[in-house]
Amino acid sequence: xxxxxxxxxxxNLLGRREPDHYGTQxxxxxxxxxxxxxxxxxxxxxxxQSNDEGDIVDxxxxxxxxxxxxxxxxxxxxxxxxxxxxxxxxxxxxxVEVHLSNIFAREPFRHTSLLSDLAIGVIAGFRASxxxxxxxxxxxxxxxxxxxxxxxxx
Length: 154
What we know:
This protein is of the alpha/beta class. The protein has 5 helices and 5 strands; from the N terminus they run E-H-H-E-H-E-H-E-E-H. The chain has helices at 19-22, 27-40, 53-63, 82-91, 128-142, and strands spanning 2-7, 44-49, 69-73, 95-99, 121-124. It has a 5-stranded parallel beta sheet with strand order 2-1-3-4-5, with helices on both faces. Strand 3 (69-73), helix 4 (82-91) and strand 4 (95-99) form a beta-alpha-beta unit. Helix 2 packs parallel to helix 5 (128-142) and helix 3 runs parallel beside helix 4 (82-91).
């Protein structure tokens, strides 16, 4: 089982950027936790982070045939990127949308996701654990052991 882990703009600054919202763990530390968890499920992870929307869309398009599903923290692109939405939809792969902070307890513009209606689930507000919960849920769905809500996996 192959899973692409996509991280959007500014997530390279984790650990020092607004720790009240995002926690103190770096992206590298979160990736290490995910690798450890994935090994228990025999899942192979491919990571990508970019601050550039075009690079992110290109990565999804390039890797769509190489993964079985996506774990996506699109960061600010969650609220703005029709291009990323279209790339994920066009990949025809299930994905879980994750957020470190509770986007619904923040500024009103963060309450809207252009991705969530396509996602098999959304996990927000648990900092690094959001990724771990999202990975576990995605693995269960890909293995046929879990149910999905809205989105492609229905």
